[in-house]
Specification:
mainly alpha, globular
């Protein structure tokens, strides 16, 4: 596995062991949530996880842009949140566990998230 800015702080031994367990025969269309995806979604996950706190939920309700700003979300990440693009958020690295927190403050039922993911095909 080549060293990239997102892996530069990881030891060579860790990267070698990670490469040993990474599946190599998965279909390219599979939406695999792996360590790389999770690392890519660190800002999204921190933002969504913050919604466990009442003051963060209030900020989201009153000024969604300010809520996103405090986590340094990129323009692309902000667009995904604004659009409630659940499959895009997943592909951007948002864990399903924190996605539930975001779905709660946006009043998006879980079946709707599932529908979007199924239809993304």
């Amino acid at each position: 596995m080549p060293t990239t800015p997102e892996t530069s702080e990881l030891s060579a031994d860790y990267l070698r062991r990670l490469a040993d367990v990474q599946p190599s025969d998965l279909p390219p269309e599979l939406d695999l949530f792996d360590e790389s995806t999770a690392r890519r979604g660190i800002r999204l996950n921190k933002a969504a996880y913050s919604l466990k706190d009442a003051h963060q939920r209030d900020l989201f309700a009153n000024d969604e842009e300010a809520w996103m700003e405090q986590f340094g979300l990129t323009d692309g990440e902000r667009a995904l949140v604004r659009a409630r693009d659940w499959i895009g958020l997943w592909r951007g690295g948002m864990s399903i566990y924190v996605m539930v927190k975001l779905s709660g403050v946006t009043n998006t039922p879980l079946p709707e998230i599932g529908r979007q993911m199924r239809e993304s095909g």
